[in-house]
Input
Amino acid sequence: MISCQRMRRSTPVFTALLLAVNAGAFEITLTPPQPLPGDVLAVEVVGIDNPRRAELVFRNETYPFYAIAPGRMRALIGLTARDKIRWEGLRVVRKRFLLPDEVKTVGIELQKRTFSHQSLRMPASKAALPQKPEARTAINHIREALSKDSPRQRWEGAFLRPAKGRRSSKYGHTRTINGAMAWDWHKGIDIAAGDGQPVLSPNSGRVVLTGRFPVQGGTVIVDHGQGLMSAFLHLQSFEVKIGDEVSKGQRIAAVGGGGFSTGSHLHWGVYVHGAAVDPEPLLDRPL
Output
């Protein structure tokens, strides 16, 4: 028989454990709720105070959470044009001290989206640029810059169109060069603009790469924070350097047509943790 005195001593410990087990359950919200290939998927969690005690797992990859308000945090996932239309589970893990981790799984199913094909013609000298040894080195250099992950959210609200002009090429379509050469799918949008026209930063950020490369031509990459990046290619010139903080709408470069290009235009790509997403939804739907 357990004495009343022992029960009284045990009660505070038991109560504390019970409260810990039944601590407020966290909630998960996905935006957009029915994502398309090319969307930025925002995973918001309410009810966990410390982002370091939470983990997001999707397709066997772990994504970082960042605090956006007291008791609220968010992680971003880039869904690309090549993602398959299927049901998938997204898992959020709440790590707890002296207790089993709490795990919640949310199902997502990408909606169908159709992408077109584009046939381009360019001089043989330009078509040969991707075969240069330095082109592969450049790709690795660019991928390294796009993989950077800074915790500070630098962007605010909807993005601005970085140059004036019509959209001359959509995100996501496949391409054929000179009738025979298959080229990788288009990882951004092209804006038709003449040499020297201003290129503006579509949102605030920090410059993490500038340079000239065989395929991309003049290049600037801006880190908007929390895994979100903008890449600007085929530039005639740029007016920023690595480490510069740039504001929304600030002129950062001039349009050109260098590299693997059929003429003067701006290529604008947006990346989330290195995954190429469609820039255009960001013009209408703030993250």
